Every structure is written in C-alpha cells, then in structure tokens.
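ABC transporter permease, Candidatus Cryosericum odellii. Tokens?
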Amino acid sequence: MLKEEFRRAFFSWAFVLALVITSVCFAIGLKEYGPPVSPFIRPEERYLYPFEQNAFDAFLWAMGLGGSFVIFAPLIAVLPFAASFITDRTSGYITFILSRTSFRRYRTSKYVANLLAGGVSTSLPLLVGYGIINIFYKRGLPPIPVSPSEGWVGARLPWVNANGTFGYLYRTKPDLYIFFLIGLAFLWGAAWATAGLATSSFIHNKYRALVAPFLLYVVVDFFLQNIGKPEWSPLFNFAPVLYKTTSPVTTFTELGALFLLSTLGVFALTKKRRVYE
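Tokens:
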C-alpha cells in the first residue's frame, strides 16, 4: 500500500508542477540577484572585489530575499498529494483500494507519502539550484570591515552574520547554513502538506482544500505582524533569514506545533465514514 501511495504521490503531474513552480520561483529570485560577475564593477576592478556576487548570497536571495518563493510555498507543499482523499473519493478509487486493504493502512500510507512529497517539492529544487549556483558563482564572502566606522566595500549583502535562526553560520560555515535552510524547507513543506491533508478530510472540494492552507498562512502572517510578533510568522518560519529576531525557539516551536496538530488532525478527523461522504 505504501509503495502504491508513493507512486501516486511522486509520479504525478501535480508533483511535477510543484517542482516546476519551485524552480521558477527560485530562478526569478536568482535573476533578481544578478549574474555571477557584478555588472556594476568595471572589468579592471573585478580582482579587487571577487566576491561581490557569490554563491552563498545568491542562494539566500533566490530562496527568500527575492520574495516569490516564500509567497507560493504553502501552495507548493500541498499541491502534490494533500487533496488525494478528495480525488480518491470522487474517482471511486477508495472503494477499489479498501476492498484490498484496511482503512488504517490506507490512511497511514497516504500520510507518509503526502508529507514526503510536500517536503521534497519545497526542498529538492533548492538543493539542485544550490548545486548549479556553485558551478557559476564564486564561493567566498566579501571581507568584513576592520572597524565599525568603515563602510562595506564590494558586498552585495553587508552582513557579518545572516539574520535569525543559526545566522552565525553564514560567515563561519556557509555551506552548513545553506543546507540547514534546505533541510528546514523540507520540514516546512512536510508540515504544511500534512496540514493540507488534514484539511481535505473535512473540506470536500479539491480546490478549496488546496487553497485553505495558503489562506491560513496569509491570515496568520498578517495577524502576527500586526500584533508585533513577526518572528513567529509562518513566512519567517520558512525563511528565517528574512527577519533578524527569528530563533531556533520560534522556528522549531511553531513548526513542531503545526506538524503535531496536523498529524492529530489527519488521524483524529480522517475517519472511514467521513472520507466516504
């Protein structure tokens, strides 16, 4: 059963579309960052500022600072498989499959396949994109000014440390910091895909079920920013580099709470009778 749900989740047009959207958003952000060699520096000066355009800053810009990916992230996470309870019912597939296995096994297999599909759809293009970036962009960071009174020279992102959660790794272990962001994107996608699956157990319109997590994302972000708690926003939870006061507490507490509540929702709300209705 698990193998079949994996096949349906990962070998589908919806999963391919999610990967394409993620890749396009990443490419748009990278385009906004600029080419490997800065067009603002004269050729004879390039040896003085070799890291103004660099692989690490390019990734941060493409993933979060460019803006488009963080907007569509919740839709990308739920697109591959979160509405599959609904499509199984409307297509009659659930009647076929439950004649061959138990509802508990069917639900558990779908839960695992869905969270993995959501996590992969939000993280795999980032991993591939980072590999491509490292081929074309130089791997290094501009030097830190000797004294605070000096201005930054040849720095696109004049940072000693990146903003927020584990930002201190940006300068000392930039690859580790990038892989943390990619791993976080996987966990974030898995959590929101699980929220989408829980939603589809009581919203029986496919398109409403897919849009519901995105609306929750927007409303919660708007509310938290207006009450002065932006570091808890799911937007900055996805890309903590966007806000300076994010921390491991805000990032993993919120993400863990969403995943736990969504998991409980899937197993508490998704009953055989409800899915059939």
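Residues 2-276 form one domain.
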